[in-house]
Amino acid sequence: MRKNFGMQPWTFPQVVFIIGSYDENGVPDAMNAAWCGMGCDDEIVMCISAGHKTTKNILANKDFTVSFATKDQLVASDFVGVVSGNDDPDKIAKTGWTVEKAENVNAPLFKELPMTLECRMREYDEQYAYMYGKIVNVSVDESVLTDDKPDPDKMGLIAFDQVHGKYRIVGEVVGNAFEAGFELNK
Ligand SMILES: Cc1cc2nc3c(=O)[nH]c(=O)nc-3n(C[C@H](O)[C@H](O)[C@H](O)COP(=O)(O)O)c2cc1C
What residue segments make up the domains of the chain, in order of their start? Predict the structure, then answer.
């Protein structure tokens, strides 16, 4: 037997993007976004509401960063998802994050979040609130590299569980992608 739940916005697990942007005066903002993912090889897609300060910033400035929420930064990562820069001018100061301008785009990088995509807006679809961005560069703190590659175990990445409204730690390796399935192809 299976139980039907009807239409629910449930996918498991959802990535937790922290989107960084500057306003016209160079004031940094960040928001939490879980309705997001990869588009093409060099492109990401996010569903972000037009009223958010972040959306207005990106439309004005075109550039933004995407970092990934971590267990160490869970409280600040959730905070930027429940308070808007439209209402609180001290939003970023309250996170305790260290703000630096990203090297390749005009958008803030938050040093406490170890992995960041530097992106440039391609299009914003106002009807569906889809924001498409090209990835210009990926920068990763050297402290979370293993064999010169970003190491999820060292980053403590968290995922969003939409069903229960929880953050969950991203777990251990359990198999090899593009390889395990060949076992059935003998
Ligand atoms: C776990 C979580 C996921 C969220 N995902 C999204 C999302 O995908 N799209 C969106 O528009 N808002 C999302 N939000 C809400 C925004 O992060 C929130 O409204 C934020 O205050 C906007 O900040 P800003 O106005 O400073 O840009 C999410 C919030 C949380 C806590």
Answer: 14-184
CA of 97 to the centre of ligand 1 (A): 18
Distance separating alpha carbons of residues 99 and 170, to the nearest angstrom: 26
> Quick one: tokens of 84?
């808007």
Nearest CA to ligand 1 atom 30: 81
Q: What does the alpha-carbon distance between residue 157 and residue 15 come to, in Å, rounded to a whole number?
A: 9
In the predicted structure, residue 107 carries a pLDDT above the cut 90: yes
Closest ligand 1 atom to residue 167 Cα is 1
Q: Say what the pLDDT of residue 5 is.
A: 96
Pocket perturbation via mutation, ligand 1, pick of 11, 19, 27, 32 by most ligand atoms within 8 A of CB: 32
Q: Residue 93: pLDDT band by 50, 70, 90 thresholds?
A: very high
CATH domain 14-184 topology: Pnp Oxidase; Chain A (2.30.110)
Beta bridge mates, 182:
none
Where residue 186 falls among pLDDT bands split at 50, 70, 90? confident
Distance 32 CA to ligand 1 centre (A): 5
